[in-house]
Sequence to fold (196 residues):
Amino acid sequence: MIKSFDFFFDFISPYSYLAHKQIRNIEYQYKIKINYMPILLSELLNLAEIKAPAFIPVKAKFIIKDCKLFAEKFNFKFKFNSYFPIQSLNLMRGVLVAEKKNKAKSYIDKFFEVCWKDGLNLNDQKIVDKILEDLNYNSETFKLEISKQGIKKELKMRTKDAFLKGVFGAPSFIINNKIFWGQDRLEFVLKEAQKN
Fold:
């Protein structure tokens, strides 16, 4: 038996997608629910005064190859999104709305898949609206809900709280008050989760 752990993510991060795919397998294998912790990566990086690797040309080229390498290792379908960077603010606010409706799992699964498996342009509101409708959300009502001050404030607070806990990137994991950064650290997360 293993303990659950916190998974800090943003749809904009391809490594968060790779972590998410592994986590769904972990949840199935160990019959547990991992705590998905939505944050706004761009704001987190601002708080940490870090420049995103994807915006440093030499690193950006490496990231694409690296993600494909890990996707092949785990046999995950992966396509680096040609519309990157995705504006994830509203999508991440949407996670909070979905949580309140107890529909976060399907929402998170769908948006990770369409972004990093299907490579859809999530900067196009018409495409996002169609995805929301496929998830049985009224797109206009959804836009109103993510525009509420409470939702805006909550995402900011969750991002700041993650930073104050020592999180500086996505994906990150916290278990037993220890932080692990990067989807390739999940094996160490699992080892920690198995401790009493």
